[in-house]
Each structure stands twice: as C-alpha cells, then as structure tokens.
Decapping nuclease
Amino acid sequence: MKRSSLDTSTANTALIPALAHIKVHPLSRFQRRAAPFRQPAEVGYFSYDASRSLRVNCDSALKFFHPPPLDGVSNNLSSGFEDSAPIRYIARASVVENLDSLLATLKTTSDSQTSLLTANDRGDGRPRFCTWRGIMTKILTAPYSSDTWELRASLHKGTLYIMEDPLISRASDGFSETDRGKKMTYWGYRFEGLSTLDHDPSTLDPDALHAAEVDRVQTGVVDTHIQFCSVIKTRIGDHDIFMGAEVDCLLPNADASSAKQQPSESTSKPATSPSATSKLRQHRYVELKTHRKIQSQSQNSSFLKQKLFKTYFQCFLAGIPRIIVGFRDDKGFLTKLKEYKTLEIPRMARNELQGEEGGAWDPAVCINFGEQVLSTLWKCLAQRNQELCREGEVEGWQVVYRVRMKNGSASFDGRSAGSQSRGGARGSWRGGASGASGAKSLMSAVNEDAEVVISDGIVGDDELIFVPKDN
Ligand code: A3P
Ligand code: MG
C-alpha cells in the first residue's frame, strides 16, 4: 500500500471510504438482556504530579474524601478563582491524551512481571482493547446522547488501541471559553479541592485535622496537572478491555487506612504491593461531581437523564462504587451533598422518570450497543489490517483508522455539533452548553440517523500514529 497523500491536519474523513456503519436507532435492536460485563479490576495505577511527570504505580495524587464546609462562607466554590498573589488556579491546557501513560503502567504491571499486553497470557485469543475510560463512556452512552466524537484506532499484535482524535477534539464547545463557562469549570475543580484532604482524616489528630480543613478553604490551590488514574481490566461480551480512568478520591476508612501506600513519595519499599493495594481500596473510590441545585421536576429529570446518566457509566466502567454530588446555587455556593451508589442509579432513574415522555435510559441498551461497536471494530479492523499488511510494506501499528459518531446536524468533523466532551481518563461530560442552561433532554435530542462510521485505514505519519511499535 502506498503512503497516503492525505494531509492529516485537514483530513476530511468523509473522503475516506467507510468500512462499516453502525446505526444507533432503532434502539429496540439493543433492548435485551445486557451482554456480560465483568467486574472491573484494578491492575495498576499512576499519578501525575504538579509538573505533569508520570509516576507509575504511585498514588501520591490520590486524595481522601472529607466533607466540604456548608456554612455559607467557606462553601464558596469561586474562592481562589481570581487570586493572583499567590495564584490559586493552575489550569492545564486542554489536550487530548495519547495512551503513553496507560501503556507505561500496563508494561510494568502483571502478576507474571511482564506486560499485560504481551503474548504470554494470550492463550484465549480474545480480542483486546486498550483505551481511556472516557472513550468507552462516549461509546456506551451514544444511544441516548447527541454528542459527536471522533476517534483513532490502530491494531497491533492483537490489541486494538483507541484514542480521541486531537484534531477534532481541540475544537471547543464555545461555552467553556466564556467567562461563565470558565468559572463553572473552576467550580467543579474547586469542589474537588474543598472535599478532599491529602491525608486520611481518620489518621489525623484533631488539631492537624482542623489545620488541614482551614488550609483547603483559605489557601487551597486548584492544580489540574495533578491526577490519580486507576488502570482497569474489564470485559464486555467477548472483549477484554484495559482502561485508564481518573479517580477523584478515596473514602477514608479507619480500618483500612494503610491501603494508600506509605510513604508514596519515597523510594523505600511500599508498605503493600500495588496489586494488594488495589484489592484493598477499589471499593472505596469516589467520583465527585457538582450540579446546580434541583428545584423542579424538570430539573430533576434533566439531572437524571444527563449528568447522572453519564456519571453512572463513567463510574460503572471503572468500578467506582460511589458518587458524591455537591449541589450549588447559581452564585457557586455549595448548598447540599448527596451520595449515590453507582449500581443503584439505573433503578432510581427508572423509578423517578416513570411516566415521563421518553422514560428513562436503559443501561442494557448502552452495554449492548457498546458491545456491537467493539465487535464491529474488531471484525473490520482485524480483517482490513491483515489485507493492508499482507505485502509486508507496512506494519499494523502504522495504519490508523478513524471512528466517528455522526449525530444530528453535525458535520463530519463534528465541529458544528457544539457538544464536544473530553474522552480521556477524566471522562467527564458537559454536553455543549447544558452545564449552563440545562439543554433539552438528551432523549429528545437524539437524531434518528445517528451512526458510528468506521473509516478505512490510512498509513499514518508521525503525527498520526499513536501506538509505540515496541509495545
Ligand atoms: P463537574 O463535572 O462537577 O462540573 P470529573 O467530574 O470528570 O472528575 O471532572 C471534574 C471537573 O472538571 C468538572 O466538574 C468540570 O469542572 C471540569 N470539566 C470536566 N470536563 C469538562 C469539560 N468538557 N468542559 C469543561 N469543564 C470540564
Ligand atoms: Mg469528578
């Protein structure tokens, strides 16, 4: 195959022939018992520090949940937003993550001391996927979402790697760039800072705890470079999936406080091995969210159909059992906290949305749709890669396929949709301007022609290829 002459910086994917189309509607095709989903198990983790350096199997960035103040003064989520001396908001430029940190962790993580992605444990011939949790969330929530997205996929040694397309995802939804949007983004991060501590509160004496509580209110810095990510193995249907997922914090537990490695920054031997640590604490992971306080039935419906729907899949996929929502008023003051058990959300949504137009979302539809996308991807790309590599002129990892969600009136490159959302480890969603004004219900925003289009591969250049060949 000849190297493609396609200019990848302006590539119009509509010009590349499609290998497959997966229609979203009618949803009745997916309304059956859900494909088997394997309980996600953490196989490793990593932290990014303030300089964004990667620390494999290090949990220095993992914080402990501690309820935020709700006193009418310290509960101001805007505090620190405009401080300049010292600066209290260090925002990382929004960039699409390649898979490097996930792969680095998988390489060092295995019971047999060799990479989980190498052939030694591949006896079952099962298709494998390696991606970020945010991307799996996009795929699974597509049946009830009007978002558009575009991904890159490459196949190498029996594993299909998927990342978000940076060219497309750089496009902003517009709202995040407004003053209000920037402030609301800060509110979400500030909520994380006001709800967590660096140390397990159950191990601090009352004075130290009080000092930590005062510090987080008065001097706490929001630095979005710092992140803790869990690396997870799960399975949907026949497909093993390795995923990286950001985890916001850990629920303190006096009995199991040693589950965080001590000391995390030093070079001395950790108190527990990474895999033992994972087993001890995965059930204590917590996802934090903010949401505007709910004052009407329609606001409750949109919370259940949008925020909680996507947060459910964000957590379900990563095995995060708890979600703590900080409700706020329009000025950004926290008013209430509410905890949701991830696995109880579908039933809750079904009960509360009963009788409403469109009803509730059905998690089985999402899982079965996701399974169909993975199966089709695997089938098409495995066959096509074999054809393209037959002559030996190119290797599998050099071929890059595009996978895009065509939805509504969005153009092929998705820019007009106004509903880009992040697909990295964070995997959070703000569906266009919905964060600000409460967009129309996603159930009714769904376009009947929505489809996932898998485009034929092109031989990538250095900018396009994202799978390291030595992997
Ligand atoms: P909220 O989701 O509570 O509003 P996450 O919940 O995934 O851990 O993300 C934490 C916060 O990051 C979000 O808080 C929000 O403030 C910000 N964020 C995440 N995705 C975003 C996006 N696509 N646009 C703007 N802000 C985003
Ligand atoms: Mg969060």
